[in-house]
Amino acid sequence: MQIPGKYLKTSLLLSFAISLIIHFSLIAGVFIDIDYGHHEERFSFGFVISQFVITFFTGFLIFLLNYRFYRPFHPQFKLKYRQVLLSLILTLAFVFVVIFLLSQLNRHFVFDVRSHRHNMELLTRNLFCAAVVLLIINILRFINHKQTIELEVEKLRTQSVQSQFESLKNQMSPHFLFNSLTALNNLVEESPKTASIYINHLSQVLRYSLQSHKKQTVSVTEELNFIESYLFLLKIRYDDNLSIEINIDKDFYYYKIPPLTIQILIENAVKHNEISKNIPLLIQVLSTKSGTILVINKIQEKLTNEEGTGIGLTNLSKLFHLLGEEITITKDKQEFRVEIPLIKPKEYEGTDN
Question: How much is the pLDDT for 161?
Fold first, then answer.
């Protein structure tokens, strides 16, 4: 089984760090004259380096030995208790084999009366090193799996948000299309020439509506260009009984909003208010200094409300919520106001209007 380069590099660095920590006092004793007391001894530089190298390679080999049991960088790998037990047995066996081989070398080449005590110290250090290595492998596995789970959750959340976004936008279009076709049906009978112009504007509106489903946001400029055609359709339908004033500061033209936002707010005002020669309706679309758009209309409630899906403002609110923004709806006895935040593009963040 091929061991990934990332795991090899990590193992080398961690083995070095473990060995350095374990032998820090010995290394410090070589370079710093420390009085340990009359019962302690000062070790030679060669002896300290040899112990450091033994611990380093022991740790590194334990890392390699246990890779197949844990596979910390493979998020789909499932760890079983039998593998953990086998890992512990083989790691202990490996440590004892290393100690045995080193003790044989010490007996044949060093002949040191202190070899027994040295072997016990070596066994203790290597067992401690093995325990630390196994702990680190499990920590690496836990961290990697946690990051993988977080990425998967974030990916699913993003997909869910996108799905909700598309679903909400698709729910907005049918109501608008129904009203447009109803108006066109009436116009064809009354004035065929005007109906032809109406169809051209309607096609532009529908084209924008269909293309907008591919985007989460559009610029205010794009929305306003679309609104021009949409207002022509309303003008044909209501004549002078409906007035719409649009006054948006040009500094906000490059800001973003969900597509069809202004159209939905205008349509909502048209649908819920009386519009006639005796009771004309004024709708104002204004920008504010704080970077929002206000859509304001007087409340002129109809005696009988039009049938509708009732999802316009609700879905619009959900759309902005998915984008991390909130709309503000205010209603009193005189006026109905909806304030929508404008989203500043990332490339312009940090700049002033």
Answer: 60
For residue 339, give the amino acid letter: E
Q: Which of 206, 199, 293 is nearest to 245 (CA)?
A: 293
To the nearest whole number, what is the mean pLDDT of the chain? Answer: 80
Q: Which H helix or E strand runs over 330?
A: strand 328-331
Helical segments of 191-311, H only: 192-212, 220-238, 261-272
Q: What is the pTM of this model?
A: 0.53
253 and 219 Cβ atoms separated by less than 8 Å: yes
Give every CB contact of residue 195 below 8 A, 6+ residues apart in sequence.
184, 187, 188
> Burial, 76: exposed, middle or buried (Cβ in 10 Å; 0-12, 13-18, 19+)?
exposed
pLDDT in tens, 75-114: 667 778 888 888 889 989 988 888 888 777 766 655 444 5
Consecutive H or E run containing 6: helix 5-22
Is the confidence at residue 189, as pLDDT, over 70? yes
Rounded average pLDDT over 59-70: 88
Distance CA 319, CA 134 (A): 49
Exposure class string for 9-31: b at 16+ Cβ within 10 A, else e: ebbeebbeebbeebbeebbebbe
* Cβ-contact 246, 223 below 8 angstroms: no
Residue 281: per-residue pLDDT: 93
CB 209 within 8 A of CB 178: no
What is each CA distance from 162 to 40, 165, 213, 274, 326, in whole angstroms?
Answer: 69, 5, 11, 37, 18
Distance (Å, whole) CA 59 – CA 132 = 9
Element (DSSP H or E) covering residue 294: strand 292-298
The per-residue DSSP string of 45-87 comes to HHHHHHHHHHHHHHHHHHHHHHHHHH-TT-TTPPP-HHHHHHH
